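Re-run with default settings, no changes from the original entry. Doing this only to confirm the output is reproducible before filing.
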Amino acid sequence: MIKFLGLCIQNLIECFKYIFGGNVKFKTIITQAAAISFDSLPISLVIAFISSAVIAIQVSKQFLMTGAEAYIGGTIAVVMIREIAPGFVALAIGARAGTAISAEIANMQVTSQVDAIKTLQISPVGYYFTPRILASAITVPMVVLIAEFVGIAGGLVVALGTINLHPARYMASAWAWMSTKDIYVSLLKACIFGALIALVCATKGYETKGGAKEVGTSTTQAAILSTIYMLVADFLVNLVFYIA
């Protein structure tokens, strides 16, 4: 884990050099953004809607029994914005796009396409990693923002259907409990998670040696490692902004 973290940091530094060298093409970033975030949008929104609906089912009747049904909207809004939306969306994108990044780069490595790039005096890390990291860091927060709206709407629908909570009371509570700090932290998390997913998965793919079997192994390990690093980053961000 420590050795792999060091490799990730080295690759990230190489990406910064590639960016400041003016070698990044905007068209490439757009292509990667479509593959990473836009194609993951449907599954991300479905997960956000279902998760908020489940939370609403769990809390609605209990809140109604204690006379606290007016706080359902605020509870769901805060939970969605602080944790559920950025966390679940990042997991969905990591499972779908992160593994694809790892498999693609691993396949390039074992078929000597990376060596071909080196013969052209081009940095493989900068060429392959940078567009993917930038695309993830920029577009994952956009997906998270949409998922937050969908999640809050999902809680509203369930609260209305289960305990007949008026939408005005739900939204009043949601607006009262939400803060700009929560939204900013949520988007910061999404940016960090997106960059981490692309960096970790690309690094794991780049370190692949062997053949088709090793490509599959690297893809699986990339999914596991990206999840672990994302959870650690989530803990550290919460520690900085909500406890420290």
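The mean pLDDT is 89. The chain is about 85% helix and 0% strand.
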